[in-house]
Amino acid sequence: MVRPRLHRGHFAFLRAVAQGLSPRAMWARYLSDAGAFDDGPRVHRMTGWIRDELGAAAARGGDFARARLLRLDLTPPQTQDAPEAPPTLAAFVAAQGLDGFGEAEQLAAWEAAWPPDGAARTRERRRIRLLQRQLDAIHTLEAQVAMPVSPADGCEAWLVDAVAVRLRRAGLLTLGDLVASLQARGPTWWRHLHGIGARKAHAINAFLHAHADTLGTVPEFESDNDGTARRAEACRPLSTCVPLERFTPPVALDGRAGAYRCPRAQCRLAADNDREAILAWLASKGDGQNGGVNCTQRAYRKEAERFLLWAVLARRCALSSITIEDAVAYRDFLLAPPADWCSVHTQPRWSACWRPLAGPLSPASCAYALGVLGNLFAFLGAQCYLSGNPWRAVRPPRPVRTGLDPGRGLTTAQWDGVVQALAALPPSSANQRLQFALPLLYDTGLRLSELVAATTDDLRQEGSPGQGAGIGLDNWWLQVVGKGGRLREVPLPSSLIRQLADYLVARGLPGDPRQAGGAALLGGATDRAVRTPWAHRLTLDPAAPIAPSTFHRQIKAFFRQCAETTATTDPPAAEGLLRASTHWLRHTHASHALAAGVPVQVVQQNLGHRSLATTTRYVRTEAAARRAAMVHFWAAQSTQRP
Q: Tyr recombinase domain spans which residues (predicted)?
């Protein structure tokens, strides 16, 4: 669907591949608009086409030597073909135990072990010189040939004629028009266009996404046929509620002249208004890892965003002028928000249908929101941006309890049923992953994010017999990075190490975790080519991790199957299994371990709780055991009564 023209992504891809970087990773980074990655022939065709285009451009300029240089394939030789690189002198001395010898003797021994291969080294030096000249030539031609994608470009400049003609008939003449249409209509933008089906729309979306830095952000592609709900939602009146990153309060309400602002000379924030102060508070919650947004920042942004919008749009008041009466009114607003502040369906943040709420908050969610805002105002007060915190005087709503909390864990009987269902699963790569992962979650109490991020490099064996002595099954520990970046180690039973070895071998990796090269403990299904023949062109890295959402869906589907099996014999147990999730297994681990007599301090360390009080909440006895104990007590008492 995309017309073959050189853009900057082609130059970046060729430079990276020529220097030996992974074609798969570079394709995903620079050529996502060219379709799915495929090993071998497609990479060679793409690099060959780029080299031919560059060579032709150099020849048109009369530089035939540069044209010949650009057509050379100077990719580093594969590892098995390349001569083994000699170790450094220090590494050689340490490996051979030559520490007590003089430097001249050490150097002589090194040269004897690694005699110079004159021809091979000469070829490698020549290849490196030519590669440097080739990279310089690519850089020079990029400035002359590469055409950046611009919103002002006509659709026919980048899309094939058949697609460009259909877009032109719909009034979409330029790429800017096309992007504006996507942003206005959302993921189903293509349904009203004659001659543009799901396949063409998907290719156009991929092209626009690949050039979002110059064209702007566009919604994700959606191919389902049921767009009725979204179209009905789009017909609603537009709202003044927009996400925090797009919200600009009026000058009179932006907080520059807030009633409770501290003198600027005392403030330790560079923020000039309330929105900037919120952003500073959110930045303080980051963990400094790659500049990304963590879960805490996303959750806190949602609460601050809601309150700022309500204060400015509904209360007509700056955040820094909020009184206790305003805070109480906001609490009541969260419990019963107007309909125009709510969205029935979850909407992306770029959509005009986005709303800050999905409906009334539960008392527990409302209490959480007030706690987050209290944290915000405490931060602003500590930095001398505000002089007070009205949330200290606001009482959160008290949850109405309609019955005893059944807990968020599985009973012993439910877990036994889960184990039996696991053993009965048919053989497949995904089922083998589940048969390893569920016992791992139960035996360790890991969070889903911790399990998905774990690799074989995080495993450690105490008293390891060494690399050549075979894999031992005892004394294995898993190093985990938990909440707040806190590091802990969790012991693993020998049965899990045996299962892990079998699972690694099934993925085509060494069974010894120490030799698996940092492979993810949970990987993708490796039998997709057999089970889904239509996907045989997809390639899979057996060491790559599975997406958390994919594994979460698999576990939920498995628990649904377990619930269907027990629905007729034990309806309450089936209802619990329907609500079960990966986090339920964390609760189950704690409850069952404590009930079995594991010291509470040990369970606290396994779960990574800061406070022992958090762990002791899991100390409870199952109903059957409680009643049996009380029956024994009552029987003893009855013998003493007259």
A: 405-632
Q: Do residues 583 and 549 share a domain?
A: yes
8 A C-beta contact, residue 17 and residue 10? no
Picking from 268, 260, 558, the residue whose alpha carbon sits closest to that of residue 426 is 558
Does pLDDT of 156 surpass 80? no
- Which of 17-21, 329-333, 589-593 bottoms out in mean pLDDT, i.e. has the lowest? 17-21
CB-CB contact of 483 with 611 (8 Å): no
* 226 C-beta neighbours (distance < 10 Å), count: 8
Q: Where are the alpha helices (DSSP H) in 211-349?
A: 212-215, 228-234, 274-284, 295-309, 324-335
Q: Can you give the CATH number for the domain in which 577 is found?
A: 1.10.443.10
Both 360 and 432 in a single domain? no
Other beta carbons within 10 angstroms of residue 163's beta carbon come to 22
In degrees, to the nearest 5, what angle opens at C-alpha 139 toward C-alphas 133 and 140? 90
| Total count of domains within the chain | 3
Instruction: Indicate the pLDDT class of residue 180, thresholds 50, 70 and 90.
Output: confident
**The predicted structure's pLDDT at residue 537:** 45
**98-102, 135-139, 386-390, 572-576: which has the highest mean pLDDT?**
386-390
**355 and 461, same domain (yes or no):** no
Give the up-direction half-sphere exposure of residue 440: CA atoms within 13 A in the CB hemisphere. Answer: 24
- 569 and 429 within one domain: yes
Q: How far apart are CA 311 and CA 275, in angstroms?
A: 12
CA distance 49 to 527: 33
Question: pTM (2 decimals)?
Answer: 0.49
- Strands, DSSP E only, in 193-263? none
Question: What residue has token string 């900037």?
Answer: 276
For residue 40, being part of any structural domain is answered with: no
Examine the domain organization and report whether 464 and 571 are in the same domain. yes
**Enclosing H/E stretch for 267:** none
Q: Which two tokens stand for residue 456?
A: 């074989």
Contact of 438 with 585, CB cutoff 8 Å: yes
- The secondary structure element, H or E, covering residue 605 is helix 600-607
Residues 256 and 388 in one domain: yes
3-state helix, strand, coil in the chain (%, to 5): 55, 5, 40
Please report the DSSP string for 40-105 in residue order.
THHHHHHHHHHHHHHHHHHHHTT-HHHHHHHT---PPPPTTTSPPPPPPHHHHHHHHT-TTS-HHH
Per DSSP bridges, beta strands 487-492 and 476-481 are: antiparallel
CA distances from 399 to 1, 289, 362, 364, 365 (A): 56, 37, 8, 6, 10
On whether residue 203 sits in a domain, the answer given is: yes
Q: Is 334 helix (H, G, I), strand (E, B) or coil?
A: helix
CB 319 within 8 A of CB 258: yes
Find residue 174's DSSP bridge partners: 154
In a domain, 20, yes or no: no
Q: What's the rounded Cα separation, in Å, for the pair 68 and 62?
A: 12
Domain presence at residue 98: no
Which structural domain, as residue segments, surrounds residue 254? 244-393
Residues 220 and 250 in one domain: no
Whether 346 and 469 share a structural domain: no
